[in-house]
Amino acid sequence: MSNALRVAKGAFGRVALLDMDRPLVRHAHPHCHVLLKVEGADTQFSVRDRIVPLRDDSAVLINAWEPHAYAHHPGQPATIILALYIEPKWLQAFRPNWRGSGAPDFFTDSVGGTTHHIVRLTHELAEAMVQEPGNAAAHELLLAELMIAVIERFTPWQDIVPSLRLRAAASGVDPRIRRAVDLIRSAPGEVTDMDSLARDAGLSRAHFFRLFETTLNVSPRVYLNVVRLEQAVHSVVDGKEPFLRIADRLGFSTPAHFSRFFHDHAGSSPTAFRAVSGLTSRDFETPR
Prior knowledge:
GO terms for molecular function: DNA-binding transcription factor activity; sequence-specific DNA binding. This protein is of the alpha+beta class. The chain has two domains: about 5-165, Jelly Rolls (Sandwich), CATH 2.60.120; about 175-288, Orthogonal Bundle (Arc Repressor Mutant, subunit A). About 45% of the residues lie in helices and about 20% in strands. It has eleven helices and nine strands. Helix 2 (about 115-130) packs antiparallel against helix 3, helix 5 packs across helix 6 (about 195-200) and helix 9 packs across helix 10 (about 255-265). The longest helix has 19 residues, at about 135-155. The protein is globular. The two termini are about 30 Å apart. The relative contact order is 0.14.
């Protein structure tokens, strides 16, 4: 069963060391996402409508909000994967234009050949996370070196001029779609179905779906699930809120539905995810 071996979270975003032996559903993330093989079988991901390999000599590169899935085949051996979810503001400290990592075209291809330097840093970071799970400073230093190597290898970073493009795109969002986005982000648990969301936006279902996906490059359902997942990850890693309360706040009818959603999107049960984040795990019982 797939599970997280270690999770690190900070200003950089998060890094998860995942032991994967089952597929993940089609989903997305609000930050650039890099997948690197640590050990085990060669495997593959579906990025948009393309199957791309993850091997010792390749990295899977996923732009912010780009739909993807882990395309694990039944009976295929497990693979340990280092999954990076990196915040644009953190990257901006290295190069101002690296804030463009939040743009939909930061990576020009969804797969690329790694170097010996990238492979070495991948293994060093994974080893540090396992051997020194509490050494956050060391993890961030290794992650910084790894991300610099990845960006310099796989992006035309010297040509990226993101600020005006991103601001123009943000200012051009249809106010009806912006209203729907604000509702999703502020109270994802209150969004019960897409028809109601379309009505609240003042649009027919078909027009709403078409305009939403044209604007944000993902469907309303995928966007809702991204927001639910990111809020769930934050709450699970934070370690203070019981899972039952997280599930209820995010709109899941039962804790079991929340656990399944989390596993299908994050590659781990919330219990394991919290435990390997160095925090105290809690069960699903109602708090006293």
